[in-house]
Write a structure and sequence with these properties.
Elements (H helix, E strand, L loop, with lengths): L2 E7 L8 E7 L2 E7 L3
Length: 36
Amino acid sequence: MSEEVKKTSCQFCAALCGVLVHVENGKVVKVEGNKS
């Protein structure tokens, strides 16, 4: 089980906040805000 963390941004509003998406075996397992 290898987990990857993909950096992306939220498209919900104009702020485009940073988001970290944790992917394991091709499936999203966790989504969290990117504090940096």
